[in-house]
Amino acid sequence: MTARDHLPPADGAVDLSRPVLRARAPLRISFAGGGTDVSPFPEREGGAVLSGTISSFAFGTLRPRTDGQVTVQSLDYGTSIGFGIDDPVEYDGKLDLPKAAINRVREIDGARPSGGFDLFLHTQAPPGSGLGSSSAVMVSVIGLVAQHCGLDLTPYDVAELAYRLEREDLAIPGGSQDQYAAAFGGFNYLEFKPGEVIVNPLRVRDDTVHELEHNMLLAFTGNTRVSDHIIEDQRSRYETGNPEALEGLRAQKELAERMKVALVRGEVDAFGRLLGEAWSQKRKMSQRISTPLIDQAVTTALGCGALGGKVTGAGGGGHLVFVCEFERRHIVARELLALGLTLSEITFSEHGVTTWRGQH
To answer: Which are the catalytic amino acids?
Structure first.
């Protein structure tokens, strides 16, 4: 596949005999356990992550064409590519994620010839913001192309394929929690074992979800980050037996279990305090995880009514999540705004990747 400037299809290239397909995959908040899903920790010690998906999504639209051409347009990156459906794959740093998904899905046994199509992608959070947006895009594209090719993939199929595409085909460092969160949706306790991921959906009471939504804040630092160097540093520290990194990773795994129990029991205050413990332990995994702004934001929030807070992804920037005493949440919000952070409220999403028919 060779990238070239995107040209809108001529009217005759749109295939009106086949439906327009749309998809969305949710972004996620990782509460505890992040890093224990990154090889080689799960193979050696077994990992565990507690996460919940939110009502922010990676969206995709697929419009069939009649001329065997494929175009991919990403609103997030402000770029487009085009290629022939039978062209060889060329990973050149230009929208490689959707290219890899298109290529691999078409090769699955049982896939019918897909023909050409236009693919339009948009995410409600910027790449590198710590909410798993890149993996959500991959999951969304896999869902679209699979349906276009007549395949019925399970959430496990979608998540496993997304993981292999990102970590093996494209050699992007990272773990596997984001792909499974986007594919399954909801609150999940994810277990990572050698060659296996087990998704344990959690039955969280509605009043607990409502209480969390009322007590939480999502704060964006204004800086996105490339997590590769953080993940590589964390991996190196683990493999060389750095005592602090070992302690942080093993504590993350334990805290994921404790927070799961607090969540299903509806103990929101305890959940919030454990979130703070998870941040303290996460900082031990790599010196690159925090920044002066992140440290200042967490210290400020804890000083005026937050029960706990942490970054939601690999670190170095992106989003932070806080659980507050509700009567003081507005004070926390005011102080975080004064630091220059952008705030949003959180609602949780029960559903994973979803596809449906649109209109031409």
So the answer is: 178
